[in-house]
Amino acid sequence: MVDEVKRTIRRTRQYWFVDGLAEMSAGLLFLVLGLIFFGQAHVPGRTAAGLVLRLAFPAVVLSGFWLCKQFVQGLKERITYPRTGYVSYPKTPRGVRRIAIVGSAVLAAFIAQLWVRYHPVPLDWTPLVEGVMTAILLVIAGQGLRRFWWIGGFALLCGFTLAVLRLPGPDILASAYFYSITGLFILISGTVTLWKYLRISRVEDNQ
Amino acid sequence: MNTDLRDLADVDRVIHEPARLVIVTILYAAESVDFLYLLRETGLSKGNMSTHVAKLEQADYIVVEKRFRGKIPQTVYRLTDKGRTAFEAYHQRLKRIVDSTAAMMKPQTESS
């Protein structure tokens, strides 16, 4: 019975991912980041377009999570809640959220600064580091869902392959490929999940 | 009656009923859920569900909120602080009983 309680808690938490919409939005965010990196690789940094592209990265990262949440919530209102029901999850207290956002931003800036100055590993290995971080994030976020392990594994493999290939051209190109390929994979996984979900669920009368 | 058996006899009977345990567990993991979700997850009929929900509401373990999602009426359930505390106490007690029973069974299994 104790195990059943644990399973029920886990299943309730996993419900957020039942329709694949969260993955689709994450995949789109990754694709946008990939496009920005492609832009940065091809547009000189000192031009106005280059400056915009450099500013676009933190802007997309900071606003992306909020936009993704709005996008997913809006679609769930139309697709998921009428079919399999509504679930809302406990919100992290605002203070904790602010500390987490500011803390993450400061930490990311600090690591980036160290990276640029000392290059703790050769810069070609950037996609591998990105792959490891993405895989960890996906596995944690996936609440034990098997397909998130697969996506995490793919991100890791993608990062490793790009690191080994050492693509010619600017270093940032490897990151562009990493985010684009991983984003596309996440988007496909989300689309397939949504397709499966729509096939097995119908709009029901709530009352 | 030893302590473990007394523990078992003293479990919260409002929560201990299997269908209500599932409902409370779901509400413990979420902030709020609607009728449709509970119905699908528990596999209960609408009538049975309403009865169990009413019992939990009577015990002040959950609150029921009626609202509209666009033009569609929606009934949303939320665990109260009292319900949360009761569930945690129930879960702890159950775990303790299971652990102590497993510990009691272990020497027997090893000796046989």
List the helices and strands and how they pair.
The complex is a heterodimer of chains A (207) and B (112).
Chain A: H1 2-14, H2 21-42, H3 48-78, H4 81-84, E1 87-88, H5 94-118, H6 126-141, H7 146-165, H8 172-200
Chain B: H1 3-9, H2 13-16, H3 18-29, E1 32-34, H4 35-42, H5 46-58, E2 62-69, E3 72-79, H6 81-111
Antiparallel strand pairs in B: 1-3, 2-3
Helix pairs in contact in B: 1-6
Describe this structure in words.
The complex is a heterodimer of chains A (207) and B (112). With 207 residues, chain A is mostly helical. Helix content of chain A is 77%, strand content 1%. Chain A contains eight helices and one strand. In chain A, α2 packs antiparallel against α8. The longest helix of chain A has 31 residues. Chain A is globular, with a radius of gyration of 19 Å. By secondary structure, chain B is an alpha+beta fold. Chain B has a three-stranded antiparallel sheet. In chain B, β2 and β3 form a beta hairpin. In chain B, α1 packs antiparallel against α6. The mean pLDDT of chain B is 86. The chains are: A mainly alpha (207), B alpha+beta (112). The interface between A and B is medium-sized, with 24 and 28 residues. β1 of chain A pairs antiparallel with β1 of chain B.
Nutshell version of this structure?
The complex is a heterodimer of chains A (207) and B (112). Helices cover 77% and strands 1% of the residues of chain A. Chain A has 8 helices and 1 strand; from the N terminus they run ααααβαααα.
